[in-house]
Each structure stands twice: as structure tokens, then as C-alpha cells.
Write a structure and sequence with these properties.
6-stranded mixed β-sheet; 435 residues; 5-stranded mixed β-sheet; alpha/beta; 37% helix
Length: 435
């Protein structure tokens, strides 16, 4: 290949960072089953990773969210029906049956904490067992009454005075120091999700923080490295994840989302929730226009006869939607500032989730957060229907990426205890991992 051809090839590779990201080699090929349990929808995806790193869908199914509120299980029977239907549709397409799934967690008031752990090595080479002990020590320090650990992610290591070590295995030192990011949540919320999946005859392969998964699906490599904040606007919650240096450094959750916008519209216009959702979807916007006062929208009133329909100016709808979204973005801004990672988060915000598709949401977020904002659509998955490739399915696609090893530090090390045999032993092992 001559120099001109080589330059052309390099230029083509750099031109599309999304394609460049898609060629990351997976740690595991699959197939894997993932389950996104949300307030507005429950979706299941069965897929695998190709040799070039791209994800391929083998089966997909989804159902309207039932038995779930603010990301948490509130009705086991209804949630079980929705999960079984979504999983069954995916299994039929993939022509296989799932025994376990990677599932998201967006409830239980998740908290994010950083820990520095020192471990004596005494001059020998660092082994995998040393790294496992460091992770277990971080889990033990994070453990508190009523809280269960979801992630204990090693961010970086130091061997004696040498810092910035990504993988210390084989290096000699007296003291190994590790910085770990621990995400935990209420044990009761974890148990409710576990109980619901047990009723569906499914085991939990991994439990993943929802904004972590959304970040894996929507961020390109440069954003992960240079710093970016992912805001996933779901139906019942809005979750935040800060990424930098290729790692997730912080996560937070707000108990407000798109459903709250819908409820505001229903309450203030005295209409049914279903019609409020339709109004929001078809006519909703955060941007004011001079024509809004003249454009009249049909609004059937609660308790009135079907033929009695009120006419409401679009400006009234805008005046309801905008304040709620302003509140959400102001709360996000406050969470970023209190995290102490405002500088690490960089100047980039990626907005995703179903509620992010409201017209004007991106511009409003940029104004309030004073950052560059783009709408984050998940990186392409081969064989997935177009209807399932929008921002509202980012968490589901990120879960599949996580299952293949993306976002997992030293994914070749099993940080859990040795898997015991027998149903009771496996259940006890799962409880130990959540301690």
C-alpha cells in the first residue's frame, strides 16, 4: 500500500468515530440475554458479539411497562406477566431459551462512592488473587445496613510510588493501591427484582446500573476518554453518569422523568393520562413560538361527554412542559456540581432516553447546563428493528455491550467467588456477592 492509499484509509477510519468504536474486540461472544426493566416499557434482547466487535440481535421483544414505578417493582404479578411476554417474544425469534439475563437497576436510590484501598504485597509480583482481595475489601468498606453493592469497578492502580497502572498483574511492589468506584443500592430493591425474575424462572447473570449501560451504548471512545455526562431521561426516573478516562466515575438518580411531564399535562388540562401522553408526543415542545397562541389543540375533558372537547392553545401545553424540564435539568446541574467531578465531566453532555426526544429538550439542556449537548442514539446493532434503535432503547443495547465485556475493567478476572453447584449454593453465592 502506497503512502497516499494509507492516508486515505486512515482518514476514512477517523471520519466515523462510531464505526471505529464498533470494531472494539469483544471479550465474550455470547449469545447473551439482557432485560431492561423500565417504568414505561420492559424490553428483552438476545444477541451476540461478532468477531469485529459489532453486536448482532438474535431476538427482541418488548411490552408496555406494568407493575413498575420509578424503575422499581411495585406489583410482582403484573411485572412477571410483562417480563414473561417480552422474554418469550425474544426467545421465539432467537429460537432459544434463556436461563439467565443481564438486567438493569434504576431503583433503590443508587449511590456512587470512590474508595482507595491499600493492599500489602511485600516485594512479590501482584497476582489475580491480590486484585480480587482489593475488590472484596472495597465491597466490605462500602457495605452498610440495607445497602447492596452493584458495581465495584477498579479505576486505576499504583504500585508503590508508580501511579496510573491499568493492570498491575506481574509487577513487583511492596504495596498495591487501588482506586475503586462502588455503586450500591437498597437491598430491598435488589431483592424485589431478584424475586420477580425468579418467578419468571430466570437467574441474574449480572446487575448493571442503568446510566452505566446507557453510556456504553451512546458514548463514542473520545467522549469516554475526554469526559462526558450521560443523562438518561426515562419515564419514572432521570439518571446521570459521568465518564472520563474511559471509566464511569459517578452515577446518580433523580425520581422524576417523562411520566411526570405527562401527569402535569393531564392534571392542569383536566384530561385523561392517555390523552395527555398523546398531546405531549404529538405537540409537546420546550420551545416557545409566536404561533403557539393561535394553534388550538383538541382536549377531551375528564368526566365530560365524549363529544364535548375543549380547545386549548398550544402555548398552554408549552407552559406546562417547559417548567418541568427546567426543573429536571436544574436538578441534574446541581448533582453534577455536588459530585465534585464537574471538570472531569468535560463540556459534553449526551442526552438519551425516551423523554429526551421532546422537541427543544436538547436546546434547553444546553442552556441550563452550559455545555454542548447532543441526543445520544445507541450505536448500531445488526438485525435490530428500526423501532428499537432510538434513544429509548439505549439501556437495553448498553446491557448487551456490557454482557460482551465492554466497560468491564480486567474482564478476564472473575471478581465473584467460585461458582458453587446446586440451587441453594448458587442462591447463597448470589447473596454473598451482594454483601
Amino acid at each position: 500500500m502506497n503512502d497516499l492509499s494509507r492516508r486515505a484509509t486512515l482518514t476514512a477510519t477517523r471520519a466515523d468515530p462510531r464505526q471505529q468504536d464498533a470494531r472494539r474486540q469483544p471479550a465474550r461472544s455470547g449469545p447473551f440475554g439482557v432485560l431492561d426493566i423500565g417504568s414505561t416499557k420492559i424490553s428483552c434482547l438476545i444477541g451476540r458479539a461478532e468477531s469485529d466487535g459489532r453486536l448482532r440481535a438474535l431476538g427482541f421483544g418488548w411490552q408496555r411497562g406494568r407493575g413498575v414505578k420509578s424503575g422499581g417493582i411495585v406489583d410482582l404479578e403484573e411485572a412477571e406477566k410483562a417480563i414473561r411476554a417480552a422474554v418469550g417474544a425474544a426467545e421465539d425469534q432467537a429460537d432459544m431459551r434463556l436461563k439467565s439475563v443481564t438486567v438493569n437497576l434504576s431503583c433503590g436510590q443508587p449511590e456512587s462512592r470512590l474508595f482507595n484501598v491499600q493492599w500489602p504485597i511485600d516485594g512479590r509480583a501482584v497476582t489475580e488473587d491480590d486484585i480480587r482481595r482489593v475488590v472484596r475489601e472495597a465491597r466490605a468498606r462500602a457495605a452498610s445496613e440495607g445497602r447492596g453493592t452493584i458495581h465495584a469497578l477498579p479505576l486505576n492502580f499504583s504500585t508503590d510510588e508508580t501511579g496510573g497502572v491499568a493492570d498491575p498483574r506481574g509487577l513487583y511492589c511492596d504495596t498495591l493501591t487501588a482506586q475503586l468506584h462502588v455503586v450500591d443500592a437498597a437491598t430491598t430493591a435488589i431483592k424485589s427484582v431478584t424475586a420477580c425474575l425468579e418467578r419468571c424462572e430466570l437467574e441474574i447473570a449480572s446487575m448493571v446500573s442503568a446510566p452505566f449501560a446507557s453510556g456504553l451504548a451512546t458514548l463514542v471512545e473520545d467522549e469516554r476518554e475526554l469526559g462526558a455526562t450521560v443523562i438518561d431521561m426515562g419515564g419514572g426516573t432521570t439518571t446521570i453518569a459521568i465518564f472520563a478516562e474511559g471509566q464511569m466515575l459517578h452515577t446518580a438518580q433523580l425520581p422524576v422523568g417523562g411520566n411526570h411531564v405527562t401527569n402535569d399535562v393531564a392534571r392542569l388540562l383536566s384530561t385523561q393520562v392517555a390523552h395527555a401522553e398523546r398531546l405531549k408526543t404529538l405537540y409537546g415542545t420546550c420551545q416557545e413560538s409566536p404561533d403557539d397562541a393561535r394553534e388550538l389543540l383538541p382536549v377531551p375533558l375528564v368526566g365530560e361527554a365524549e363529544h364535548q372537547i375543549a380547545k386549548v392553545p398550544r402555548s398552554a401545553l408549552v407552559s406546562i412542559i417547559r417548567p418541568r424540564l427546567e426543573e429536571i435539568f436544574e436538578l441534574v446541574r446541581d448533582r453534577i456540581e455536588t459530585s465534585g467531578l464537574g471538570r472531569a465531566a468535560g463540556a459534553r453532555v449526551v442526552l438519551t432516553g425516551g423523554a429526551s426526544q421532546l422537541v427543544g429538550a436538547r436546546e434547553l439542556a444546553a442552556q441550563i447546563l452550559d455545555r454542548q449537548v447532543r441526543i445520544g442514539k445507541p450505536l448500531g446493532v445488526i438485525g435490530l428493528p428500526d423501532a428499537a434503535t432510538g434513544p429509548n432503547f439505549a439501556t437495553m443495547i448498553g446491557l448487551l455491550a456490557f454482557a460482551t465485556g465492554d466497560g468491564q475493567t480486567m474482564h478476564d478476572i472473575d471478581f465473584s467467588l467460585a461458582a458453587p453447584q446446586g440451587r441453594l449454593a448458587r442462591f447463597m453465592n448470589f447473596l454473598v456477592r451482594r454483601m
